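Appendix B. One record, verbatim.
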Amino acid sequence: MTQQITVHGTVAEGFETVREEFAAFVAGERDDYEGQLCAYVRGRRVVDLWAGTEADSLYGVFSSTKGAAHLVVALLVQDGTLELDRKVTYYWPEFATEGKGAVTLRDLLAHRAGLVGIDAGFSAEEMADDRAMAERLADQKPFWRPGTAFGYHALVIGALTGEVVRRATGHTLQEVYEERVRAPYGTDFFLGLPESEDSRFRSVQPMLPTPEQQALLAAQPTGPHTLGSIAFNTHVPEPGTLADYVNSRLVRAKGPASAGGVASARGLATMYAAAISELDERPPLLKPDTVAEVGQIHSVGYDLVARAHKSYGLGFQATADMWHPVLGAGAFGHSGAGGSQAFADPRSGLAYGYTRRRMAFPGGAAPENDGFVRVVHRAAMTA
């Protein structure tokens, strides 16, 4: 007999439809469902819901991590520490090998560098260590001529931009994030989870595809020399799964900046709220010009890795084009392979975060986000 899952939490007046949408979804899920949903509008928390879990439980959020990483880059561009159109070699001279000398920081952030992985693949230990990955990537020849096309740098973009941050500041990207973003707001979005917080971590559960979904997954090109295999490091002799990766204590302790972050929905939403709105009597982290720059589409069309239409701003996904067309054109954020979704929509003032424990088909933002975003955006526009 299926046990009914209770929805906990609160919504602000005018956002009751969000609770109804969330409860209706939860009622149709397996009885082991765990999920959290949180949203802010112009710095005010208006949705804070959870089911099958606790409000402060933490989950591996896969590529939603990239939002935190590239908020750091945006802050450093804003204060003049980094310049988008400088060549990467200005900060990182060793990067110039194998025809990469003309690649700019803007190219890196827009997934145009052609450096989605390395021929030999990374070890599990290297995958947890951004600096070790960066050293290997500096010696790699690009897989296409930089700047001529784009493809999702799924597991390496954090190491690449992180090395630029380290060279420019003398601190790791994770250290800058902790000092300038996470600690001031006390947000539960970690790039490097302290052991003292590890009891709150809920291990990611693997996807349970239907037979039809499994057939679609099996039809994907999986040869060892495809760009997808190289980008997701599955061309090594003993590849681990994505769930194994985020469930590794080593990974969550180090917080690699591409996909090793750990967060609650509150943590995701709070970070994006802080980016675009006054929060806790602090001004927005990002100035309007910076918000416009990071949210502007820089790469759009056929993604050579995903083999599908994608669009990216600067380190962030162009959320309206890729996922949720109800949002403003300047919305920016990042989904994660486990089903998480997080973004800021400057037009409505909406900041959104969703986490779930079990990975959702087909990867990226779980399908239920469509309904959640529609109702929370509608309420936000009338708030």
